[in-house]
């Protein structure tokens, strides 16, 4: 109840900080228990700001574990409600930012844009998570020339490794590997070594992508030698974090896929053969997690490796699959199609229903007769999350019932017809 002895907002916020520390130490259950306790206390004391702080932290814990669909299940309704409010506290922008990051990871750009909608009223100060998610959305929508990229250099970039990682990625897409390499070099050592294991791996993998482009595309010049030196430093950085023994590793659902990306970029840099096997592993793992943009990137690299190995048919097939899964990521799609043009491969027609790859996967399984619980079991997600995917699919297909939606999904019915 309000005014409980010993309760205070600063105490609640300190406990939320402790939850993040517990997660990094591998104490996953305790981390969530602390966040739940703060949320309950905030509710009892009618403290909306602390409740939003707790919600954003719990959603961030899920995001840190790779459980992006659970983020949407937990916080999507709150995020959409916050976007419609005339004024939103900073913690509200944090909730919207985390939810948008989860949506973009799943390839649902429309949902990410809706949660971040800059036209939506929202007083208060923007949260760094919201700023970063907004910058990521602009990049995905096609800011290939650099439009909007400067916004990633917000005040926390030098204290936040994920923000720095995104700056490297955005620069790589917009200005090329040479410019991105300078950012990889400039990362503060303390920042790179003090972040959690998985933030370090993501930074190093992005950096290694840059180095592989430069080290593999030229031979013997100064830029190539510099890229190889930086790559060696990144490998030492990752090895020092002892990934295999990280206590948090066992709880991160995307661990194997992220490690597959790292190993594939390392193989590309060092010219390991057959390179296609490394990228096939990464693509299949990201596909299993329903991450279309990451899968598409891996298939794009796989197509290049197959072409180099003389498998033109295989390269063409992988480019078609990359094209299909990258359609909502402007810069990646341009690269896929540029490679297809060089190889003489045609792209497949785009699906016209607007469904994300995960929504199509859920609809396919529903069409096979599985219940929501059965679909969830097959995909490793909750029945409630399945329900969210189905609701989104129904809306995009222009209907509100399962039977009609499945007919339209399979092209047996069109909006406006009986069904």
Automatic annotation (TrEMBL):
Statement: the UniProt record of this protein carries the keyword Hydrolase: no
Domain of life: Bacteria
Leader sequence residues: none
SUPFAM superfamilies from the UniProt entry: C-terminal effector domain of the bipartite response regulators
Keywords (A to Z) from UniProt: DNA-binding, Transcription, Transcription regulation
GO BP terms: regulation of DNA-templated transcription
PROSITE patterns, per database record: HTH_LUXR_1, HTH_LUXR_2
Every HTH luxR-type domain range: 348-413
GO molecular function, one term: DNA binding
Identification of the protein by name: Regulatory protein, luxR family
Species per Swiss-Prot/TrEMBL record: Microlunatus flavus
């Amino acid at each position: 109840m309000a005014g409980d002895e010993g309760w205070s907002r600063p105490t609640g916020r300190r406990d939320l900080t402790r939850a993040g520390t517990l997660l990094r130490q591998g104490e996953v259950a305790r981390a969530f228990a602390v966040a739940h306790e703060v949320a309950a206390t905030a509710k009892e004391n009618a403290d909306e700001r602390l409740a939003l702080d707790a919600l954003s932290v719990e959603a961030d814990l899920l995001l840190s574990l790779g459980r992006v669909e659970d983020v949407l299940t937990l916080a999507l309704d709150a995020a959409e409600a916050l976007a419609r409010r005339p004024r939103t506290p900073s913690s509200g922008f944090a909730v919207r930012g985390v939810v948008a990051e989860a949506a973009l990871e799943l390839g649902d750009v429309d949902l990410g844009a809706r949660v971040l909608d800059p036209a939506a009223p929202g007083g208060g100060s923007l949260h760094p998570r919201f700023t970063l998610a907004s910058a990521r959305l602009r990049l995905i929508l096609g800011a290939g020339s650099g439009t909007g990229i400067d916004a990633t250099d917000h005040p926390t970039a030098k204290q936040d490794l994920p923000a720095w990682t995104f700056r490297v990625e955005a620069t790589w897409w917009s200005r090329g590997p040479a410019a991105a390499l300078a950012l990889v070099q400039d990362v503060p050592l303390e920042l790179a070594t003090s972040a959690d294991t998985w933030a370090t791996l993501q930074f190093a993998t992005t950096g290694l992508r840059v180095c592989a482009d430069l080290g593999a595309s030229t031979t013997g010049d100064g830029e190539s030698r510099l890229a190889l030196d930086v790559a060696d430093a990144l490998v030492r950085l990752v090895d020092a974090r002892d990934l295999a023994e990280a206590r948090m590793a066992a709880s991160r659902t995307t661990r194997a896929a992220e490690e597959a990306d790292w190993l594939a970029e390392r193989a590309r840099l060092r010219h390991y053969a057959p390179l296609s096997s490394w990228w096939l592993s990464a693509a299949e793992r990201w596909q299993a997690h329903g991450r279309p943009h990451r899968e598409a990137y891996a298939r794009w690299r796989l197509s290049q490796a197959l072409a180099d190995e003389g498998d033109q048919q295989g390269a063409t097939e992988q480019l078609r699959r990359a094209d299909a899964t990258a359609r909502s990521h402007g810069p990646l799609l341009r690269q896929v199609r540029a490679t297809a043009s060089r190889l003489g491969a045609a792209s497949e027609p785009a699906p016209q229903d607007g469904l994300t790859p995960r929504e199509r996967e859920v609809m396919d399984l529903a069409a096979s007769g599985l219940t929501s619980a059965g679909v969830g079991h097959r995909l490793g997600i909750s029945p409630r999350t399945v329900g969210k995917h189905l609701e989104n699919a129904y809306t995009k297909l222009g209907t509100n019932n399962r039977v009609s939606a499945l007919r339209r999904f399979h092209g047996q019915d069109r909006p406006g017809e009986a069904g």
